[in-house]
Design goal:
Layout: H1 14-27, H2 30-53, H3 55-60, H4 75-93, H5 102-125, H6 127-130, H7 138-146, H8 152-163, H9 166-176, H10 182-198, H11 201-209, H12 214-246, H13 256-268, H14 274-303, H15 313-324, H16 334-351, E1 363-367, E2 379-382, E3 393-397, H17 405-414, H18 419-427, H19 432-441, H20 445-449, H21 453-469, H22 477-503, H23 507-517, H24 522-534, H25 541-560, H26 566-574, H27 581-590
Bound molecules: zinc ion (ZN).
Length: 591
């Protein structure tokens, strides 16, 4: 199960930027303060230009001022975008990093990394050419239709304005696609078939029931028909492409060592190299197997009474895990069980004094809205974007009604009584939700917009360990063994991603790693293989972030000795927004 955190992660109102500026003025020498002020003005100007140049990006992060505009991803647009990034990289290069306060230095590095990465994607990596799945208009229309940022009629007018460009959008897509992979072509087919639903009956009913004028309704009908025809035309184009690629000659989905290293540097911004992370993950796998064997032997008499213990340690661990997985909630109680656990997690964090919480910003557990379902994930956090400071944070939990009896049984075994608690720790408290709550207080729009995925996922994984180290579930061997299996998944994701993309790891070997060595079910393993053929680097973010935060914690704990406090470390770590761990580490070492 993938547990995505949607992109509009954090709110950090613009007024906070002013507050940051004032704070800097009060505490710094005048020259430095004015350098910071100038930098902040520069950032504000750059962001303003970004919203105009990339309206879809603006809308996705919750700035709806350009929500009526649609980008046609043609060669002229790519040229303009490259020019945009180059111009702003040149401007950033002229700023004296040493003159800025530490928070602004991180902001500058984040912007530079972001712009370099995007330019590299356009000029070198070129997913717009070989990944047909980059083309899909469904999501951006979905945001306008389903997010209530303005009255329905306003949003529908934005929809009508944007619909006019859909045919040009898909014409540009067809012109750009060259030498694609079979995997990304097939993904594009599935996703664009899904996009058709966005223009279907639900939208038509919304328009019919609205107070739009007769002329507007007629214009909608004509443009919606043309848009659907354009999506269908793209689907036909992809089907023909798929047939051709199946006969051979498709580009491989493996990106190779050089591109991988570059993408890893941009996406993870880690202090580890790919090779170092790979070695670390391989070692961690062995350490987890050792610890799991010990726990499985300890648990054997309690759960496996009278049964002979297998000689092979992986078989032994698997047998105990299988037995534990029989303890789970009922299918119809899934959402309620999660809802009931949240207060218990809050209480544990408070009593053990692990990290600050904010009772004024409660987490709302809800059933996943229908338009967000279908991604397969059972649970995810929806946090307000940086421009929507008052919105709720939701914990979306998908009820299991869409599953067959067998699917539900398998899902519940996977999210059994212990694993479900770890899921809630990861997603909610003190994982993603708690981290986002802290990040919202950080005074940087840049950090909330260009935040680092490895820091975010790394924290969620790290927070699981914080809870267990503090004696969660009375430190039971059951919860530890379950956590280790869960943790082994991120370790394995890292090993797989690196070996698949850069070392030609084959499907059968990858499945054996996941099923035998990481105790996964076959469906999970085959789905993960699929995902690993579409994405690169992202699968390493969990372990990369976790490993770096753990290394930082160990370093500071050794340095501070009996002055070290878990809560002090956690609060300070979370106070820097979504900056890459290596930048947070530098700030914490200096303080
Ligand atoms: Zn996560």
């Amino acid at each position: 199960m993938t547990l995505p955190v949607p992109m509009p992660l954090i709110r950090a109102a613009v007024c906070c930027l002013v507050a940051a500026l004032l704070a800097a003025c009060a505490t710094q020498p005048r020259a430095a303060a004015s350098a910071d002020a100038a930098f902040q003005r520069h950032v504000d100007g750059v962001l303003e230009e970004m919203w105009q140049a990339f309206p879809e990006y603006a809308t996705r992060v919750g700035n709806y001022r350009h929500a009526d505009r649609m980008t046609v991803p043609d060669a002229a647009w790519r040229e303009r975008s490259v020019a945009f990034y180059t111009r702003h990289l040149d401007a950033l290069a002229k700023i004296d990093l040493a003159s800025l306060n530490p928070g602004h230095r991180v902001d500058l590095e984040l912007m530079r990394n972001q712009f370099e990465s995007r330019r590299w994607q356009l000029t070198t990596f070129k997913p717009w050419q070989w990944q047909p799945s980059t083309y899909n208009v469904g999501g951006d229309f979905g945001v306008l239709i389903n997010t209530e940022f303005a009255p329905l009629e306003t949003r529908l007018r934005h929809v009508i304005a944007r619909l006019a460009k859909v045919p040009a959008y898909y014409a540009a897509a067809k012109a750009a696609i060259e030498n694609p992979t079979l995997e990304h072509t097939q993904l594009a087919l599935i996703q664009n078939r899904g996009a058709l639903r966005v223009f279907g009956e639900d939208l038509e009913k919304k328009v019919a029931g609205s107070s739009l004028s007769v002329d507007e309704k007629a214009m909608f009908a004509a443009r919606n028909t043309a848009a659907k025809a354009a999506v269908n035309g793209f689907i036909e184009f992809l089907s023909a492409l798929e047939t051709k690629l199946k006969q051979g000659g498709a580009r491989t989905f493996r990106i190779g060592k050089d591109l991988y290293a570059r993408k890893f540097a941009y996406d993870i911004q880690s202090s580890f190299t790919v090779e170092q992370l790979h070695q670390r993950a391989l070692k961690e796998k062995v350490a987890l197997h050792d610890a799991m064997e010990k726990l499985a032997r300890e648990l054997w008499p309690k759960w496996m009474t009278g049964k002979p213990m297998p000689a092979d340690r992986l078989d032994l661990i698997r047998a105990v895990l299988d037995e534990l997985s029989k303890q789970h909630t009922k299918r119809e109680a899934f959402v309620e069980t999660i809802r009931a656990q949240i207060p218990a997690l809050e209480k544990f964090v408070r009593e053990k004094d692990l990290v600050d919480q904010d009772p004024s910003r409660p987490l709302v557990v809800r059933e996943t809205p229908p338009y967000m379902r279908g991604g397969g994930a059972g649970a995810s956090i929806s946090a307000p974007g940086p421009f929507d400071p008052t919105a709720n944070t939701y914990y979306n939990v998908t009820p299991l009604d869409h599953f067959t009896e067998a699917q539900a049984a398998s899902f519940l075994r996977e999210y059994n009584d212990w694993t479900l608690q770890i899921l809630n720790i990861h997603e909610a408290i003190p994982g993603h939700y708690t981290q986002l709550m802290h990040a919202n207080k950080s005074k940087s729009l840049v950090k909330s917009l260009f935040g680092n995925g490895a820091m975010i996922e790394g924290w969620a994984v790290f927070s699981e360990k914080v809870m267990l180290d503090a004696g969660y579930d009375n430190g039971s061997p059951e919860i530890w063994l379950s956590w280790m299996k869960w943790n082994l998944r991120s370790v394995m994701n890292t090993i797989l991603d690196i070996e698949i993309q850069t070392m030609n790891l084959q499907r059968e070997d990858a499945l054996r790693y996941m099923i035998r060595e990481a105790f996964q079910q076959e469906t999970e393993a085959t789905e993960k293989w699929r995902r690993a053929t579409f994405s690169q680097v992202q699968l390493t973010s969990y372990f990369a972030g976790y490993a770096e935060i753990t290394a930082l914690r160990d370093e500071l704990k050794a340095k501070q000795a009996d002055k070290f406090s878990v809560k002090g470390f956690n609060n300070q770590f979370l106070s820097h927004g979504n900056a890459p761990v290596k930048f947070i580490a530098a700030l914490m070492r200096a303080s």
